[in-house]
């Protein structure tokens, strides 16, 4: 038995020992007050002390044995209400711990799958450049720009996905002029517009929104990239802001009804996404994560059989003219 165990056992048994001594003292006081026979207290001590000492000895041996069982992970049976409550609490904690470990392992597997997916897409873009460099002395400028844009797109998804998995994301709120943000994103995607002969058509864009400029840029860029990806060539993409809602509408295949409930799932590409090898199903998933953390809503739907609309809706408290 170590010193720590003796101290803990003494603290547990001290109230009982003190109670026994008080009982002996009370009996002696009563004997004195009522002038009872002098042998009454001595007989009580003589007959009760061995029993009490034996009980204390059994108690210390029992507690030490139970401590050894716990230390060696032997089956432990609760004998008191407090031990039973602690045993139940331990079982609950163990269940929660296993669930947490499973969740962390699942999260790790998901992140590894995402990393593998994005790395594969980036490698594809670089492989195209490598193949052209091996076959030709000069490389087409447009092909280089397209491959670089594709690599940057997936690298941006990868980095922002990692940021979103952190416990604390570096959000910095500021008033953002909607027209300026939309103009910046459209300019960055100008080569994609030109490649598919698409035209941006701007509706009302006057207004400001209180949010994180960097993450708003990310969300608009993802929605616009999807609109460009699935738009019919030589059509227009409508972009407007009204009543705290930014809408991006493209002319192209509608979203199948079976895909609609799963659009924001991790890695879901849907029927339209399977028609292109450049769809990872991660863009909308990340946009939904950002929307939840910055307190606005994202929705994607098809108002007609040849249109798809993506929209970001902000609370009134975050919008001003």
Automatic annotation (TrEMBL):
Keywords: Cell membrane, Kinase, Membrane, Transferase, Transmembrane, Transmembrane helix. It comes from Limosilactobacillus panis. The keyword NAD does not apply. Residues 117-318 form the Histidine kinase domain. The chain crosses the membrane at residues 12-32. It comes from the Bacteria. Its EC number is 2.7.13.3. One of its GO terms (molecular function) is protein histidine kinase activity. InterPro entries: BphY/WalK/GraS-like (IPR050351), HATPase_dom (IPR003594), His_kinase_dom (IPR005467). This is histidine kinase. It is a multi-pass membrane protein. It catalyses: ATP + protein L-histidine = ADP + protein N-phospho-L-histidine. It is found in: Cell membrane.
